[in-house]
Amino acid sequence: MIIKRFNKLIQLISFRALLFIVLAATALLQFFLMIDNVRGVTYDIQLTELSPETIRSSKTVEDTVKTEIERENAEKAVDPVYIYKDEVPSQRATFVTTIFDIALEVKKDIAEAEEEIPQAEQIKMLRTGLKDIFDNHQNLILSDAQLLNVLSASQANLESARDALATLVEVNLNYPLRKDSLLPYRNELESKIRQQPSISEGLMSVAIVIGRAAIVETEVLDEEKTAIAKQQAKEAVEPTRILQGQIIVQEGEVITREIYRQLELLGMLDSEESIKPIAGLIILILLQMSFLFVLFDRTEKDIASKRNELLVTIIVYVIALIMMKLIALISTNFDLMIAFIFPSALVTMLVRVLANDRTASIVTIITAASAGIIFHEGLSGILQMDTALYILFGGFASIIFMRSLEKRTDILQAVGIVTLVNIVFIAFYILMGQSGYGMKEVAFYVAAAIISGLLSGALMMGLLPYFESAFGLLSVVRLIELSNPNHPLLKKILTETPGTYHHSIMVANLAEAACEAIGADGLLARVGCYYHDVGKTRRPLFFIENQMGTNPHDTMAPESSAEIIIAHTTDGAELLRKHKMPQEIIDICLQHHGTSTLKFFLFKAKEEGKELDESVFRYPGPKPQTKEAAIISIADSVEAAVRSMQHPNAEKIQKLVQTIIQDRVQDDQFDECDISLKELKKIEDVLCETLNGTFHSRIEYPKE
């Protein structure tokens, strides 16, 4: 009663609004189930206190403070990059030569002057000539007395001093020389100048001043290369990380400023709890719900089917979340990973049976992501990837290998394959973990994998009837149950209308083959055929396949006969509803004749001269709404017509099938379903092939 009221309530809401409400409620529930798994462990600890326990890092983070210190130390350790300039010795020798050459020119100008030039004016002339050099060399300072000595010296002495000093400077600068080493080199050069006999006594002081000024660095700091080297040294320093699982402080150890800083960086203090993980969880849930929203919003099905698939999928997903949360809560009492007990393929198998493969695939991925959060341990990464992959592999194994559920062996096979995949994944988990597991641990994990696979199948089969009953769903398993000959209605058809039963079996074979040829639901068509004529059990003798002699229609008015024949669709639907049969089977019963005409009785009425409305001889319909119903309507007419044919052969059968299909098309019987002319041609070919195999010519055996 509650479920019926709930169904009536949601039918009043538009599908998109219902989709939004359901996903929002699911997201909210999921958030509260998973929030504790992302918050992490925090401690109420103060500086200088003793640690109440051994605290390990709950995640891997970069210690930016230590990283920056190490990078600064690496930068300081880089030696400056110097460049040796081999052109400096010759340049400085030229510098020396230029000074003496200017002095010689000034001296020549003085000698060629018409009048005697005073000494002060001579010194001024020389200083003017050397002005540019003095301006560019602040350490070159010559007194007036020294300049007068230069002007007083002979040309030979000047040239001799020039050459000797230039040679000394050039030779002494042919070595790497840095700025901080200039003073010793200048002192050494001064000593060498004093030992030069080619430099006169009057020019000695001048030569010393010029020589000391000529000594400059030959190795110059390359600031660009030095900066690059420092940057490379900084970049070469790997970030200092606090690793996941690393011990931050031992139990009973004093909380120093450094330890406190690390706990603060890790967000493991009560005052430093980060909202980032919570925000991340919200993003994950929104991403999951967005996928589901797009999936169901774009599904091209009728609203009722979409609504049922949505509710079923969400309920299955929520059940899985609750199961995972319960397992996670008790997992703290175990040293081993008990998450592997979770039925890895349960969600996938249920959604696949109750909805479709596409929805099952999406929900499998979403469930795996949620499992990675719920089973997340304090020292694992963002997700518990081993359990997430475990569910992914188990779920997709069921999608790939559970292709059919028409036999119980199909289910057992799917469960067996899921179990095998679980065990193989456990082997991967144990080997990749490189842990020293003993036989007990290995046995536990293998047992968990087996339990997971068996639970997937057992819970699927156990929960399936409840979903089918609550939402009126027609699953493969339900169809298989309905195809059991021991079903009360099938027994009724067999015992009360054996001819109809045989006809239904034959139609089922034809319809199933035709459905499979165009990609329709062959199993639904087969089971629908079993029950499509159940209404004939109300008046079995009025249908020719059940008659054993006289035909009651021979003595009846055509309109009365038509009324009885037509009523078998509505009578059948009423009987099916009474037995709480799925709506799809009821629809097939009502639609398998559509609104076609009972031509036999219509012609009979005309022969009798009766002017009756043609609607009296038409089925009430509705017309076939699905491909399965359309195929059954064709197969039903074809089987009955071929069975009544005298000496059927391939040519007669093909012509008959073509005629029946064309008649249905011309009568607009397929206007309300999405079957195409191309598909009708395939159906024709399959029906002819199947009928030829059934009604093939046989050898006439000789009489004895």
UniProtKB/TrEMBL annotation:
NCBIfam families to which the protein is assigned, alphabetical: HDIG
UniProt keyword terms in alphabetical order: Hydrolase, Membrane, Transmembrane, Transmembrane helix
Highest rank taxon of the organism: Bacteria
Matches recorded under Pfam families: 7TM-7TMR_HD, 7TMR-HDED, HD
Domain spans labelled HD/PDEase: 496-650
InterPro entries linked: HD/PDEase_dom, HD_domain, HDIG_dom, Metal-dep_PHydrolase_7TM_extra, Metal-dep_PHydrolase_7TM_intra, PgpH_phosphodiesterase
Organism, scientific name: Solibacillus isronensis B3W22
SMART domains cross-referenced by the UniProt entry: HDc (SM00471)
Classification lineage: Bacteria, Bacillati, Bacillota, Bacilli, Bacillales
Designated name of the protein: Putative HD superfamily hydrolase
TM ranges: 278-296, 308-330, 336-355, 362-382, 412-431, 443-464
Gene Ontology terms for molecular function: hydrolase activity
